[in-house]
Amino acid sequence: MLDHVSFSVADYDRSIAFYTATLAALGVMPMMSFDNDGGKITGFGANNNPFFWVGDGGALTGGRMHVAFAAKSRADVDAFYAAAMAHGGKDNGAPGLREHYHPTYYGAFVFDPDGHNIEAVCHAPG
User: Fold this and answer.
1) What is the pTM of this model?
2) Nearest 5 degrees, angle CA 39-CA 85-CA 10?
3) C-alpha 98: how far from its chain's center?
4) How do 49-56 and 5-9 pair as beta strands?
5) Torsion from C-alpha of 100, 79, 119, 41, nearest 10 degrees
6) How does pLDDT run across 5-61, given as a tens digit for each residue?
7) Angle at which helices 12-24 and 74-86 pack, to 10 degrees?
8) How far apart are CA 69 and CA 116, in angstroms?
9) Are 77 and 108 in contact (CB under 8 A)?
10) What Gene3D superfamilies does the record point to (predicted)?
11) In the chain, domain spans
């Protein structure tokens, strides 16, 4: 079971704006920000639980990651994708069924401004 995920980005302000807009569609909001060893970090979450942390990595940003956020409905997946596209995301798989995973896997994939593969997925039937 995951407790939280954190990673660095090249342009902190751009990424915070991207994630604030994109994750709002899933009910995930910025909850706290502070300086962390000379850089900035923001924790996004819900229900008083920050679980997705974005930090200022500057030139030290390396490798790519994949994070999938659980969505309550297919409409939330669609809203996530639309928000990502409107705020600098790049398409990596428009909203739709991915039946090769399982019959009700409805997901959308985007690349964030640093090229990380970010997904929203709903497992509920139609």
Assistant:
1) 0.82
2) 20
3) 19
4) parallel
5) -170
6) 988 898 999 999 999 999 999 999 999 998 876 789 999 999 999 999 999 976 555
7) 150
8) 13
9) yes
10) 2,3-Dihydroxybiphenyl 1,2-Dioxygenase, domain 1 (3.10.180.10)
11) 5-122
Whole-angstrom distance, CA of residue 96 vs CA of residue 120: 11
The token pair at 76 is 């939330």
> Which alpha helices (DSSP H) does the chain contain, by range?
12-24, 74-86
Kindly state the average pLDDT of the residues 69-98: 97
Q: Which CATH architecture has domain 5-122?
A: Roll (3.10)
Neighbours of 19 (CB within 10 A): 24
Q: Which of 20-56 are b and which e, b meaning 16 or more Cβ less than 10 Å from the residue's Cβ?
A: bebbebbebebbeeeeeeeeebbbbbeeeebbbbbbb
Kindly report the backbone phi and psi dihedral angles of residue 14, in degrees, each rounded to the nearest multiple of 5, phi listed first: -60, -45
Q: Report which of 59, 72, 58 is spatially closest to residue 12, judged by C-alpha positions.
A: 58
Residue type, 110: V
Contact between 40 and 92 (Cβ < 8 Å): no
